[in-house]
Amino acid sequence: MGRTINPLGFRLGTTQNHHSIWFEQPKKYCQGLQEDAKIRDRVKNYIDNHRVPRIFSRTYFISRIEIPDCISRIEIEKGKGFVNVIIYMGFPRFLIEGKPSKIKELEVDVEKVLHCGNRELTISIREIGNPYRDPNILAEFLTDQLKNRVSFRKAMKKTIELAEKAYAKGIKVQIAGRIDGKEMACVEWLRKGRVPLQTIRTKINFCSTTVRTIHGVLGIKIWVFTNRES
């Protein structure tokens, strides 16, 4: 039987870095992990509740679609007396336009989940260079298409097309569940280019998420091969 492993954890220390950078005593390590999870949940919920609404057509695809305020990843740095939260986003429209009042409002909301209240919290926004080479942003686009009842195969092909325009060397998109309302769950996937999962030195970005449709919950996985480390 085959054994699968997360492509990001498989490449830690080579082409991938940790998204949480801090040191804690063994007795307080679990508390630190729970705090990181609460910080990320607060940030995602705040942005989801305040983002600009997106409108997609079921029958017409735009060649270049911007997905506003989509989070790529959230990095957390902790030290003695400070907590730095760096939000990497593609097309950051809402938070950039509302600076600094929106950032201050977000900081007040995140401070409620910090275990130690005497630490200084700093939140910063950074825009990523090629948003459509990021699997999280591609997954956000794919979930929106599936919620709007677009054909899953057409949505997968458009997702691959967006990654190709961003000069990705390879991409694989997989959807699992009751696709198009079928009685039995199945797995459908499409791949374009090379996706060498067994080579540790390759830069593979991975995303796994779910989307709730009228037929049930679908699982989405996206692998993106960007370049090779020297």
Kindly summarize this structure in a few lines.
The chain has 230 residues and is an alpha/beta fold. Helix content is 30%, strand content 30%.
Written description of the protein model:
- The chain is α/β, with parallel strands linked by helices.
- It folds into 2 domains: 16-52 and 65-127, GMP Synthetase, Chain A, domain 3 (2-Layer Sandwich), CATH 3.30.300.20; 130-225, Ribosomal protein S3, C-terminal domain (Ribosomal protein S3 C-terminal domain).
- Helix content is 30%, strand content 30%.
- It contains 6 helices and 8 strands.
- The chain has helices at 7-10, 29-50, 94-97, 101-111, 135-147, 152-165, and strands spanning 20-21, 70-79, 82-90, 120-127, 170-177, 186-193, 202-213, 216-228.
- The strands form 2 sheets. Strands 1-2-3-4 form a 4-stranded mixed β-sheet. The chain has a 4-stranded antiparallel β-sheet with strand order 6-5-8-7, covered by helices on one side.
- Strand 1 (20-21), helix 2 (29-50) and strand 2 (70-79) form a beta-alpha-beta unit.
- Helix 5 (135-147) runs antiparallel to helix 6 (152-165).
- The longest helix has 22 residues, at 29-50.
- The radius of gyration is 19 Å and the shape is globular.
- The two termini are 33 Å apart.
- The model is unreliable at 55-64 (pLDDT under 50).
